[in-house]
Design a protein that fits this description.
Blueprint lengths: L4 E2 L47 E5 L2 E5 L22 E4 L13 H13 L5 E3 L11 H15 L5 E4 L5 H14 L3 E4 L9 H12 L6 E6 L7 H8 L4 E7 L5 H9 L4 E4 L5 H6 L4 E4 L8
Parallel strand pairs: 4-11, 5-6, 6-7, 7-8, 8-9, 9-10, 10-11
Antiparallel strand pairs: 1-3, 2-3
Helix pairs in contact: 1-2, 2-3, 3-4, 5-6
Length: 294
């Protein structure tokens, strides 16, 4: 687990830092320990002697942290955007490819800068519109790196990491978190007719792979979840909203009433954008906003 201390308290604590206390839980993480869901010691009371400290920045404040189980990335991994500000129009961004199907870096950068110039509220990347299911895991990671570098904190980035396999999804979620995205999303497991319990376990495992806010994905083409399952998932601490791609917009009011106004709803049916907003959606995520972001 991470043990973080302010710079002012550093001198007297450099030799030994010990984190003791209540057993941490993914639903209610201890303050200052965003990495704990990935820690193999998370189920135990953590008591770690730390030989080396590394500086990182959270909201402009410098801290020092270390853990012999987790290697902190050198870049500033903390998002500058809170989940409550992830609203508005967020294109499900297309991916630019070369004729040989390799990623067209310059084309991708042009797309990003065009959308930001049109004042979109954020970017939803590596989704089905971005042809994620036609890319290898390594290509997806390369794509995320290029996007994070080019965006450079100008707008929030939500990276879709979903696949049919939990391990593959959790690995990409971990990578995207370290790369510097601001939120994660994942299609539910598809092809097979998964039960609601299996879908819950899938999202629960993903939530433990990252401290970032997670937007679950309710789509009628891939195991559409009922309201009770959404309510159960919303109880997991870092699951903060749902991309809702179905025509049943009357459920938006039910979701807001039963889960709360802080739980974000993103309309995912482009042709029903106005209906979604009238029904209470906090934002729009869709393919056509690449063509008409304004």
């Amino acid at each position: 687990l991470i043990s973080a201390i302010p710079v002012a308290d550093l001198d007297k604590k450099t030799k030994r830092i010990v984190l003791e206390g209540d057993v941490p839980s993914p639903v209610n993480p201890p303050k200052g320990c965003p990495f704990h869901p990935r820690c193999p010691k998370a189920k135990d009371i953590c008591k770690i002697e730390v030989p080396k400290l590394r500086k990182y920045t959270t909201n402009g404040n410098e801290h020092y942290a270390s853990c012999h189980l987790i290697d902190l990335p050198e870049r500033n991994w903390m998002s500058k955007f809170e989940h409550k500000n992830l609203n508005g129009v967020m294109p499900a961004m297309i991916t630019s490819f070369n004729k040989d199907e390799s990623i067209n870096k310059e084309g991708l950068r042009k797309i990003i800068n065009h959308l930001i110039a049109e004042k979109v509220s954020g970017l939803y990347v590596t989704g089905s519109t971005g042809e994620t299911f036609l890319m290898s895991p390594e290509e997806k990671k390369k794509l995320i790196d290029i996007i994070v570098e080019e965006v450079n904190g100008r707008v929030p980035i939500i990276a879709h990491v979903g696949s049919i396999g939990t391990k593959i999804t959790a690995d990409l979620a971990d990578y995207a978190t370290k790369a510097g995205v601001d939120g994660l999303s994942a299609l539910p497991p598809f092809y097979y007719n998964f039960t609601n319990e299996e879908i819950f376990n899938y999202y629960s495992d993903i939530a433990q792979s990252s401290h970032l806010p997670i937007i679950i994905y309710n789509i009628d083409r891939a195991n559409l979840m009922d309201i009770e399952t959404l309510k159960k998932l919303a109880a997991i601490g870092n699951i903060k909203g749902v991309k809702y791609t179905a025509a049943t917009h009357f459920n938006f009011e039910v979701i807001k009433k039963d889960i709360g106004n802080d739980f974000k709803i993103y309309n995912g049916m482009d042709q029903m954008a106005i209906s979604g907003l009238i029904s209470g959606a906090d934002g729009l995520i869709g393919s056509f906003y690449n063509l008409m972001p304004e």
